[in-house]
Design a protein that fits this description.
Layout lengths: L1 H27 L17 H13 L2 H25 L4 H12 L4 H4 L1 H7 L5 H22 L2 H6 L1 H30 L6 H13 L3 H10 L6 H30 L2 H33 L7 H21 L3 H10 L5 H30 L8 H28 L4 H11 L3 H13 L5 H16 L1 H11 L8 H7 L2 E6 L3 H15 L6 E10 L8 H19 L4 E7 L2 H11 L4 E6 L43 H9 L4 E5 L8 E6 L7 H12 L2 E6 L8 H13 L4 E5 L5 H6 L2 E5 H9 L10 E6 L1
Parallel strand pairs: 1-2, 1-4, 2-3, 4-5, 6-7, 6-9, 7-8, 9-10
Antiparallel strand pairs: 5-10
Helix pairs in contact: 3-4, 3-16, 4-16, 7-15, 7-16, 9-10, 9-12, 9-17, 10-12, 10-19, 11-12, 12-13, 12-18, 13-14, 14-15, 17-18, 17-20, 18-21, 19-20, 23-24, 25-26
């Protein structure tokens, strides 16, 4: 009745008001009398009108900008993916993508397409939008700098860092002396040109360096701490120098720039002694909140914009204001993480590629069209490498590092990446660099960043130390090693309890390693150590409750499934345990299968919508990431479908085929280490008809008569399943169970799916 009433109301309202609209439009025709109405010509058919309208829409500035963004993101992600696959930072690929879309490739071979996609009048919009991306990027870079690290580890790091700035800065100014006459723009003084050459040689890309250090697993070592601190000190010093250089260039002389510098110093003091305490107060109030309210977020972003505006007006560039705002953010890891997560996706994926392409549009490789110019380019690269690589390495050696660590520091500090492009674009906008010099410096930035990985590999190869196995190492390699990979700590605790029940009485010859992989990228690495400690606190607490020693592994990554498999394979583990969510147990239905928990797979990602009383998995048992881990992993793999697993005292193990024979080993481990009561279910008489499995189980029954019971499938009742703690099943048998649409699936406890 209610639906009929709603339907009548709907049709009445729409009908009456549609008729009213028709009547008003008809009456309105009479208002055209006396007015000059431009009617379409007879030749201008409806189709031609449509084409004219479409052409007009395509040339609208907004349509052009949106088309540019779509093209840029697709091409940037593609090139980034390619370079990531060859072991290079994805930022290199995105820079190459910018050059590819510029006049060097697309503009040269497809000039009409390039002109249509990037018309000259549209570049202003692209530049301003890319500058917004840079402001957000510099805000995050400022937040990634941990000033406490500079205070605690300043001795060696500051010496190395400042040497890595002073030496290349001096060499850059010296280089300017030789190239000024031919390559400096007309009307630019030598002081301005030389200062920009010096600062361009001195930059280190902190985010790229942090990513390389983390990926190579040296972030926890003394070397990693030193090089991260060096890069942080380098960033602060270089950006302060850049602000001074910009002030001098805009003012024309050093004397006249003193007013700008004085105003900049006043701005910095205001930020440190007025804004920073206010931020700290807000951070203390909201440090325990998982989410921040919109007014609080608005305060910080408004401060970011005001700070950028102030430094732009002062004359030291808006990017310095964004960087400074990031530096004074509250020193609370969770607080900074919230802002980084809000900003980095938009900045990194959407806006920064616009900057790369805008840089690429300015980079004209075709201008370097004779051997002399390539010779100058090579000389610039040589000066850059000698100044940064050699300068940093010698400084590190002087403060007491060995040659391997010194050269490693030099190679890492020589990484320039995106930060170099920011400096070069500022110089180009100020008219200090010509198109030729800009192109040569961009090539230098690419080469010095690209060479970092191979240089580190070469250093490690040259200084490769022979591994000598001690008796303890031999014992360690013979241990039964379990690796658990968890997302949130609740799933990690369940996995730890499960692993402990497999080795509880064999701790002397067994080890458990807990691993957490955090989704991250080049911009997000400032507080990995603090985040690691916070992540493992509940796991370590649970390990003490279980009286189980564990090792820990933490890594930031952009390819979780590959890294899980690589660590398990290369670590020579005997079993890898990962987790699935529990929502398949909701109600009496299978429900909806979740992916791996937080950070491993988003727990809100539902794979299949299940309907009906006995709804099943349809065609998908696991999500794509789980399937990739199964495919890539070469070690035995256990997938825990967790239904609040607290104990493993009651376990049942179904045998669907003779290939399930390996499950006997796990049964023995549960019984011996945890005194579990095991119900072995013989599905379709598979055990009865196989001598080897039958003999193995009979041996277990004789050894542990109180723990082993063999039952037939027809003896299983729904109440039996509910009373169990855990089902252990092979991967192939789990697929058979799902395909058979077994009634078991609506009453299962936690499930351990094992792939041998």
């Amino acid at each position: 009745m209610k639906n009929l009433k709603n339907a009548l109301f709907y049709f009445t309202v729409t009908g009456v008001f549609t008729a009213l609209i028709y009547w008003v439009v008809g009456q309105g025709k009479s208002l055209e009398i006396g007015r000059k109405i431009i009617a379409p010509s007879a030749k201008n058919t409806e189709w031609n009108q449509f084409l004219d309208s479409l052409t007009h829409n395509l040339h609208h500035p907004l349509a052009i900008l949106l088309g540019q963004i779509i093209t840029i993101i697709i091409v940037a992600r593609f090139f980034g993916w390619i370079f990531k696959k060859i072991g290079q930072p994805s930022v290199i690929g995105e820079i190459i993508a910018g050059i590819f879309l510029g006049p060097s490739v697309v503009g040269m071979y497809f000039p009409e397409f390039s002109l249509a996609l990037f018309p000259t009048e549209s570049l202003g919009n692209l530049q301003f939008l890319s500058q917004i991306g840079l402001i957000l990027f510099m805000f995050v870079i400022g937040m990634e700098l941990d000033l406490k690290v500079l205070k605690n580890k300043a001795n060696e790091a500051v010496v190395i860092s400042h040497a890595s700035i002073v030496i290349p800065f001096a060499l850059g100014i010296s280089l300017a002396y030789f190239v000024y006459y031919k390559f400096a723009p007309q009307g630019v003084e030598f002081l301005s040109f030389s200062l920009f050459m010096g600062i361009a040689m001195s930059i280190t890309a902190f985010p790229v360096l942090a990513r390389i250090v983390q990926e190579r697993g040296i972030h926890k070592t003394k070397l990693g701490s030193i090089v991260i601190t060096c890069a942080a000190a380098d960033d602060i010093t270089a950006w302060c120098l850049l602000a001074v250089v910009i002030a001098i260039v805009k003012a024309g002389t050093f004397e006249s720039s003193l007013y700008v510098i004085g105003l900049a110093i006043f701005y910095v003091l205001l930020m440190l002694f007025l804004v920073k305490p206010f931020f700290k107060r807000v951070g203390d109030l909201y440090s325990n909140n998982e989410n921040l309210s919109k007014p609080v977020v608005a305060i910080f972003f408004l401060t970011l914009i005001l700070s950028s505006y102030a430094t732009e007006v002062i004359g030291i560039h808006a990017l310095f204001g964004a960087f400074m705002t990031g530096v004074i953010m509250p020193d609370v890891s969770k607080f900074r993480n919230i802002f980084i997560e809000k900003v980095e996706d938009v900045a990194l994926i959407l806006l920064l590629p616009l900057f790369f392409v805008f840089t690429g549009l300015r980079t004209q490789i075709g201008l370097i069209n004779d051997p002399y110019l390539w010779k100058i380019t090579g000389f610039i690269i040589l000066v850059a490498v000698v100044g940064k690589f050699v300068g940093s390495a010698l400084a590190a050696k002087f403060v007491g590092q060995n040659w391997k660590d010194s050269l490693t520091i030099g190679a890492l500090m020589n990484t320039r990446g995106l930060m170099e492009l920011v400096v070069l674009n500022i110089g180009y906008d100020l008219g200090v660099l010509t198109s030729e010099m800009f192109t040569m410096m961009v090539i230098m930035a690419l080469v010095t960043t690209f060479m970092t990985g191979p240089a580190l590999d070469l250093i490690n190869h040259v200084f490769k130390e022979k591994e000598i196995l001690t008796p303890e190492d031999v014992i360690e390699t013979n241990k039964y090693k379990i690796l658990i990979s968890f997302g949130n700590y609740e799933k990690g605790k369940s996995l730890l309890r499960l692993a402990n029940s497999l080795i509880k009485k064999q701790k002397e010859v067994s080890t458990i390693t807990a691993m957490h992989l955090s989704v991250s990228d080049e911009m997000h690495g400032f507080n990995l150590e603090d985040y690691e400690k916070e992540t493992f606190v509940p796991i370590l607490k649970e390990s003490k409750t279980l009286n189980q020693d564990i090792n820990t592994i933490f890594k930031a990554t952009t390819d979780i499934e590959t890294d899980i498999a690589d660590i398990a394979n290369h670590g020579d583990y005997d079993l890898l345990l990962v987790g699935l969510g529990k929502s398949i147990f909701e109600g009496t239905l299978l429900g909806k299968v979740l992916g791996f928990t937080t950070r491993i797979i988003n727990p809100d990602r539902l794979l299949d919508k299940i309907t009906g009383k006995e709804g099943l998995f349809a065609n998908s048992i696991f999500d794509e990431r789980t399937r990739q881990i199964i495919a890539k992993n070469k070690t035995p793999l256990g997938i825990l479908v967790d239904n609040e697993l607290n104990y493993t005292d009651k376990v049942f193990v179904p045998f669907f085929s003779t290939d399930d024979a390996f499950l006997v080993d796990y049964i023995q481990k549960f019984v011996y280490n945890n005194n579990s009561k095991i119900k072995i279910i013989d599905v379709n008489n598979q055990i009865k008809n196989n001598f080897l499995i039958k003999n193995a189980i009979q041996t277990l029954e004789k050894t542990y008569p109180d723990n082993i019971a063999l039952v037939n499938e027809d003896q299983i009742l729904k109440s039996f399943l509910i009373k169990q703690d855990l089902m252990v099943i092979s991967l192939d048998s789990w697929k058979k169970l799902v395909d058979s649409q077994s009634v078991w699936l609506s009453n299962l406890p936690s499930v351990l799916i094992i792939k041998p």
